């Protein structure tokens, strides 16, 4: 039996219990532990990561590096200090990791006109769009000049909207994807740029194009990705905004009046979305009203590798949950103004010369609105207040402002943490590190953090690696899927063409360019070690046919490495899906034994089952039927699709996943369906059984599977954060016993009649570190009332959602919705939701089980 603890309240010299008195004959429901101060002093502050880099690890990088000089974009002559320090816009030198698992190629740095994405042949398809539809569109082909003089607003908006696309007023669509490319230049804009559904807006990463607001710009939002209509509502419901990207840009508002409340990006969005490698240049005048990033709604999400210079608030953000990594913020009044949250994970944040670092004090309707946040591997410098929380006149909900700081480095920060009325953790005029500190339920303290497995770290911080842009490579380094004979039309069988292409590219050291399209495959696609694959506008690999239809003989749709194979791959910007009944499909099987120093990377590689054109799993085939009791005999077999969505096998190791969404569709995304709900039955979500471990999951979500969303079995050394799950909306009709039987060889959980699946299950595993978890159950047979505030325990959507079985685990900010018991440990329910009310969610700040004071493994 392993030991466990819950940091419900913090104490310094004794053990306290909240809500119950410990019994000497049985484990207490809630236990706290003695806290000791572990604040340490560093000789000097660390340097923030360089901006605009395709690799953000700096001295922590474990691979060889090449140096690239990023030249200023043509027409941009502002020499305002670059946010990372004394560098100016005249030149910026950054260090990037060479792409490719071996890290041995050192290509010649390209000029500004040599970016491969601009030079490869563009022949991507959108099979369900109008004839002649263009997926790739260069803004200069639509009349944009980029000369720093002409007004390019109309041309840019035309490039985005061309082709009868899904704009404001359309409920959503996957049929008109677009990649809108900005070559280097300075683009003057006088009115908002309006983003459309399913759009990638991408600039040249070697010479970042500048989109500069004119002095007469007077709108609330600059790049408006979800505009408000005349009815006061967002164009798209923020929780249904998926599959969009913005990357490699400079957004410059410095000529806009400092008195105008304006945000560079308006980003109310949800899963499978990203903002990366963007520089925000804002006013630095005293009392200015500029904001860099504004988010007010949604269910995100990931942003990373952003640089903010100036502004009243670099970020003003609220959302159900988000992962934000590698943000550099300088010269703002408030670096991060948190409007609201359920859970939020901040990793690798560098703040310098602001007045407030993180502001979690927001109050609305008499309640504190920030439920929880985790900040780790970050630094705050030359800023009077590092973190502010609470309000002197508001103390509800009880668990509000549940905050964790771990490995946060300070330099010249007077108040490390300021509470509702005074300083609760002092800073220092010099350098100081907060090893671990937390606040919840009106109490706070420093404490000893869990040991970090050496396999997961680089220089003390957790290992990170950003999505490669391959900017160092010329167009000749890329092999096109369509040039190789794949049709991508959703009709032809592209299995053979794709397999030959991927094998050829890996052997030749080339990069596979998966043109936009639907690649129908009828047997397994095999990705060998050494492969590099990147997609255009999120192309789809679509399984089809009898090969994947037998649940008694499951087979992978995409197999990364053969069993027993060693090495690494890189894979980005793609979707793996099923077509029709595919009860035996394992959508992604990962077998590679990758080294911890150079792990495999998957960035924005999503699993999507149903809900889109071409899937044969839409409203017409799989409409919900809550009024009909579903049994093994009458379940619609045409809607059983997916044995297992993602499998990390026993022999696999060294896998980094960032912003990957594993989604069984709960509604139809296409025009005409109006987001109506559907029932698709997929057995299992993400299964990790890697015996060697070394797994990084940053900003991942898994939703709507039958048996579980995340399951970790016989594994070790896994970091997860922020993770997010939703139970299947149809459960318990049918319940978690239907349609897939529990199979012991797959370590399946066994359920009783009427029970719903696990959000997270951890079995016989060690070194599991969770930096934020949102485990949600919103429906009981499509009835949402069970998730509402004030619902009694017996009326919750499901009884339990998180199971830990004989494992070593540390969880920060466990947030649940719609579940009666928050944790089930070795089969025993431990925590009732009612003890941890935090607005719409319930929050446990720290849960530990089996964690000892042993040294790093």
TrEMBL record:
CDD domains: GH55_beta13glucanase-like
Domain of life per record: Eukaryota
UniProt cross-references to InterPro entries, sorted A to Z: Pectin_lyas_fold, Pectin_lyase_fold/virulence, QRT3-like, RHGA/B-epi-like_pectate_lyase
Signal peptide: 1-22
SUPFAM superfamilies named among the record's database cross-references: Pectin lyase-like
UniProt KW keywords: Lyase, Signal
GO molecular function: lyase activity; polygalacturonase activity
UniProt domain Rhamnogalacturonase A/B/Epimerase-like pectate lyase: residue ranges: 136-359, 478-542
Region (Disordered), start-end ranges: 38-61
Protein name (record): Pectate lyase superfamily protein-domain-containing protein
Organism the protein comes from: Podospora aff. communis PSN243
């Amino acid at each position: 039996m392993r030991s466990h603890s819950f940091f419900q309240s913090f104490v310094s010299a004794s053990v306290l219990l909240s809500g119950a008195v410990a019994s000497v004959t049985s484990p207490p429901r809630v236990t706290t532990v003695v806290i000791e101060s572990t604040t340490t002093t560093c000789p000097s502050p660390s340097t923030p990561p360089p901006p605009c880099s395709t690799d953000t690890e700096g001295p922590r990088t474990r691979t060889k590096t090449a140096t690239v000089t990023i030249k200023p974009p043509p027409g941009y002559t502002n020499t305002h200090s670059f946010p990372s320090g004394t560098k100016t816009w005249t030149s910026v030198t950054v260090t990037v990791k060479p792409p490719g698992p071996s890290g041995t190629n050192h290509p010649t740095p390209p000029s500004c006109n040599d970016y491969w994405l601009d030079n490869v042949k563009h022949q991507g398809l959108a099979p369900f769009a109008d004839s002649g539809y263009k997926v790739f569109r260069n803004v200069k082909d639509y009349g944009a000049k980029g000369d720093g003089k002409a007004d390019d607003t109309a041309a840019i908006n035309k490039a985005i909207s061309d082709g009868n696309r899904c704009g404001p007023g359309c409920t959503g669509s996957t049929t008109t994807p677009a990649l809108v490319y900005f070559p280097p230049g300075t683009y003057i804009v006088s009115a908002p740029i309006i983003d459309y559904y399913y759009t990638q807006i991408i600039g040249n990463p070697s010479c970042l194009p500048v989109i500069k607001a004119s002095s007469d710009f007077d709108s609330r939002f600059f790049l408006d990705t979800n505009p408000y209509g005349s009815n006061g509502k967002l164009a798209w419901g923020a929780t249904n905004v998926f599959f969009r990207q913005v990357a490699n840009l400079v957004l410059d508002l410095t000529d806009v009046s400092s008195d105008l409340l304006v945000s560079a990006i308006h980003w109310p969005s949800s899963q499978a979305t990203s903002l990366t490698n963007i520089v925000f240049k804002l006013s630095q005048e005293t009392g200015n009203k500029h904001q860099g990033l504004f988010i007010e709604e949604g269910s995100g999400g990931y942003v990373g590798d952003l640089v903010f210079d100036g502004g009243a608030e670099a970020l003003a953000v609220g959302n159900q949950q988000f992962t934000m990594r590698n943000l550099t913020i300088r010269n703002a009044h408030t670096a991060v103004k948190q409007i609201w949250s359920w859970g939020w994970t901040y990793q690798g944040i560098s703040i310098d010369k602001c007045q407030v670092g993180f502001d979690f004090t927001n109050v609305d309707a008499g309640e504190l609105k920030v439920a929880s946040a985790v900040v780790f591997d970050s630094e705050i410098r030359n800023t009077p207040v590092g973190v502010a929380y609470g309000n002197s006149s508001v103390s509800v909900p009880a668990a509000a402002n549940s905050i964790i700081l771990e490995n946060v480095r300070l330099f010249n920060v007077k108040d490390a943490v300021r509470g509702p009325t005074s300083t609760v953790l002092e800073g220092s005029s010099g350098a100081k590190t907060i090893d671990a500190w937390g606040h919840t339920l009106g109490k706070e303290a420093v404490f000893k953090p869990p040991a970090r497995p050496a396999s997961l770290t680089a220089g003390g911080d957790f290992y990170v690696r950003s999505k490669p842009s391959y900017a160092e490579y010329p167009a000749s380094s890329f092999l096109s899927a369509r040039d190789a004979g794949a049709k991508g039309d959703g009709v032809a069988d592209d299995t053979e063409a794709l397999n030959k292409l991927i094998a050829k590219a890996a052997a030749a050291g080339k990069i596979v360019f998966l043109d936009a399209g639907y690649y129908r495959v009828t047997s397994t696609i095999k990705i060998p070690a050494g492969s590099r694959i990147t997609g255009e506008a999120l192309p789809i690999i679509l399984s089809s046919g009898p090969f994947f239809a037998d649940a008694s003989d499951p087979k992978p749709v995409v197999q990364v490495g053969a069993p027993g194979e060693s090495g690494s791959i890189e894979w980005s910007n793609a979707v793996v899906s099923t077509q029709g009944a595919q009860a035996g499909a394992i959508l992604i099987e990962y077998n590679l034994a990758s080294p911890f120093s150079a792990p495999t990377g998957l960035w924005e590689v999503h699993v999507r089952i149903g809900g889109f054109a071409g899937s044969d799993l839409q409203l017409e085939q799989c409409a919900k039927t809550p009024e009909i009791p579903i049994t093994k005999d009458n379940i619609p077999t045409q809607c059983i699709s997916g044995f297992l969505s993602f499998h990390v096998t026993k022999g696999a190791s060294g896998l980094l996943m960032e912003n990957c969404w594993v989604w069984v569709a709960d509604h139809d995304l296409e025009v005409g369906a109006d987001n109506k709900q559907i029932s698709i039955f997929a057995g299992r979500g993400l299964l990790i059984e890697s015996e060697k471990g070394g797994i990084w999951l940053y900003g991942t979500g898994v939703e709507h599977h039958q048996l579980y969303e995340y399951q970790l079995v016989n594994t070790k050394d896994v970091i997860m954060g922020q993770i997010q799950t939703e139970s299947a909306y149809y459960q318990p009709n049918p319940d978690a016993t239907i349609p897939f039987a529990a199979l012991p060889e797959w370590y399946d959980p066994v359920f009783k009649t009427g029970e719903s699946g696990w959000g997270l299950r951890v079995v016989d595993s060690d070194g599991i570190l969770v930096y934020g978890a949102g485990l949600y159950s919103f429906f009981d047979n499509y009835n949402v009332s069970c998730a509402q505030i004030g619902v009694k325990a017996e009326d919750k959507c499901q009884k339990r959602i998180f199971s830990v079985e004989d494992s070593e685990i540390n969880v920060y900010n466990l947030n649940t919705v719609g579940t009666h018991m928050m944790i089930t440990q070795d089969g025993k329910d431990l925590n009732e939701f009612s003890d941890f009310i935090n607005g719409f969610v319930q929050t446990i700040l720290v849960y530990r089980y089996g964690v000892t004071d042993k040294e790093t493994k």
